[in-house]
Amino acid sequence: MSDENTQHDDDQHDDGRLDADGIEIPAGPAAPAPVDPSPADGDDDEVRRVQAALYARIGEQSPEHRLSATRRAVELLGDPHLSYPVIHITGTNGKTSTARMAESIVRAHGLRTGLMTSPHLVSIRERIVIDGEPIAADRFVENWDDIAPILEMTDQELTAKGELPLTFFEALTVLALACFAEAPVDVAVIEVGMGGEWDSTNVVQSQVAVFTPIAMDHAKQLGNTVAEIARTKSGIIKPSSAVVSSAQTPDALAELERAAELTESTLSVEGTGFRVTSDTPAVGGQLVSVQGLAGTYDDLFVPLFGAHQAHNAAVAIAAVESFLGRGSQALDEDVLSEGLAAATSPGRLQPIAQDPVVVVDAAHNPHGARALAETLPVAFPSEHVVGVVGILGDKDARGFVRALKDTVQTFVVTQPPGERALDADAFARIVVDEVGPDRVVVEPALDQALQEARDLADEADAEDAMVLVAGSIVMVGSVMDLVHAEGGTK
């Protein structure tokens, strides 16, 4: 998605502001006002044709535990994924933000980049980014039309063997890998869809494997313990590669250490191999200092909010150090600063409207909700937060609410689009059980829930009342679409 509205001009600075204790918060480059949140302009009928063809396949939340199907498809295409090096990223939370920061840093070094992330917020083209921009509509369509016969051939072979045809995510992965080769890119930063070992992106031969914090999520697919989930995710580590990891629980770290040893790879872990030495809130983000694998970098402006984003930035820096110099050569600090300052992570604590302020965040599990609860009061101080919350049926709804119950004053309970959504009434019973009936309003229709939340914020006895939308990435994207349809800001 286009970053033109959210990048920062180094020649423009705000004057800073005071926090609740009267302490001045330093100013980074000028903070963006709420912007038109739609990255999807230009999705014509041909893009929608491709999207429909992808969505006609088995959904990405029902992945096949196999690599053979994707391997066969890329083999028939001539192995396009072997024409560029890869930084491969997995984890439970923070994957997309870390991937976007790593890609921005690499691009600042003059390399042409590809970036694959998921899911998308508004446009499916957001998932395939070339040189910092969503792939152009015509290239998206032309690449699809080029590979469609190969996908059909692969489907026929699979069906003949009694297997299911390529899934949505398998076909999308093949498309992304082909798009990167066609561009062509110098390096691809690729986010795992789910898990790692059998995720279709794992056909790549990565030089760097990156792990963001690993926690419980997708238990049905990945395992019932953090150790089991970490074992599945550790499958992205390739022989003799560089492995970079966030700080992990002992169980998760043990699995990464085992996998690194078996593959004769090097493992660098936050806290011992590299670390955040300081992070200070700044207007529009924060100033972060990092002791990297090979260099020390002070007061880097990161235009994302929260301590968790400071740690994501440290992981991204270590990943790029590992990629560009095997962890033994420091990055040029000016280039690093440029790359980080240009990084964006849409849908992550992002203001999209004002009067009242509306902020969206992709938190959708307890781990993400705790990070949101810690960050929101610093980034957007408010005496009254009205939360528009909806969640998918396979998530820990109660843990999500518990993490936000002291941050959100009023909950407007709704439900995300799609069949996987937890029914609003069922979710409301959980929310009422956690926070009491006086703090809960139920509105299943998302557009009406957003309007109800805005009205409640306007009526609240607080000048800085705001609306927070969280619980589902799909829901966040739909809200961004709603605000875009009304002109971006209100």
UniProtKB/TrEMBL annotation:
Q: What is its EC number?
A: 6.3.2.17
Query: Sorted alphabetically, which keywords does the UniProt record give?
Result: ATP-binding, Ligase, Magnesium, Metal-binding, Nucleotide-binding
Q: Which reaction does it catalyse?
A: (6S)-5,6,7,8-tetrahydrofolyl-(gamma-L-Glu)(n) + L-glutamate + ATP = (6S)-5,6,7,8-tetrahydrofolyl-(gamma-L-Glu)(n+1) + ADP + phosphate + H(+)
- Locations of Basic and acidic residues compositional bias? 1-20
**Taxonomic classification:** Bacteria, Bacillati, Actinomycetota, Actinomycetes, Micrococcales
PROSITE patterns per record: FOLYLPOLYGLU_SYNT_2 (PS01012)
A GO molecular-function annotation: dihydrofolate synthase activity
Which ranges form a coiled coil?
none
**Top-level class of the enzyme under EC nomenclature:** ligase
* Pfam families in the cross-refs: Mur_ligase_C (PF02875), Mur_ligase_M (PF08245)
Q: Which domain of life is it from?
A: Bacteria
Domain (Mur ligase central): residue spans on this chain: 89-320
* Annotated family: Belongs to the folylpolyglutamate synthase family.
Query: Which interval of the chain is the signal sequence?
Result: none
Q: Which organism is it from?
A: Curtobacterium luteum
Renumbered residue ranges of the record's region Disordered: 1-44
Q: What is this protein called?
A: tetrahydrofolate synthase
Cofactor(s) required for function per UniProt? Mg(2+)
Question: Which InterPro entries does this entry report, sorted A to Z?
Answer: Folylpolyglutamate_synth, Folylpolyglutamate_synth_CS, Mur-like_cat_sf, Mur_ligase_C, Mur_ligase_C_dom_sf, Mur_ligase_cen
Its cellular-component GO annotations read: cytoplasm
Residue span, Mur ligase C-terminal domain:
347-472
